[in-house]
Amino acid sequence: MRFFFLLFLSFLLFSCASTPPSNTQNSCMIFEEKKSWYKHTKKSYEKWGVPIHIQLAIIKYESAFQNRAKTERKKLLGIIPWKRKSSAFGYGQVIDGTFDWYKKDTGEYGASRVNFKDVTNFIGWYVNKSHEMLGIRKDDAYNQYLAWHEGQGGFADKSYLDKPELITYARKLEQTAKLYEMQINDCKDVLENRIYWWYF
In terms of DSSP H, where are the helices of the chain? Predict the structure, then answer.
């Protein structure tokens, strides 16, 4: 009986952990609801130097904080669901090849695109790569997102110039990142002083 109770409790905790935050417009509310997320984004920041507000903005615009987000399926003959548009998956909508590159480069072979901690570390690594390869500042949300979406090679070739919708989307992400930054500055003391001992 005790075993089944613990199994049920684990299921409830996993379900709560994987559901998107109820308020994705406010970073302080996000961290209040998802109490381990600040710790994970901060660790990624300390390791890679990528600001927390940019990590959050990328996840919001890629998956709306849905850990198992996938791309839409193509339509065969316009009506029959067919293959997905790409292998993009998880919080960051990361494609298979790029995630394999990350795992080989970092040794994080057990990393998962549905795990928030792993994805924040991936974002730090990828943004840092774009900084090293392209010279994009780590706090430049607009250009970092264009490199995220198009890949470093696509960004270097300026493929985004033929995609006005993507440019508009990147500008919106940039504004959200700025908003998240202001909000985090307001609640940072609370976040820093709070100890979530059950996550250690």
Answer: 2-18, 27-33, 37-48, 52-63, 96-106, 116-134, 141-156, 164-193
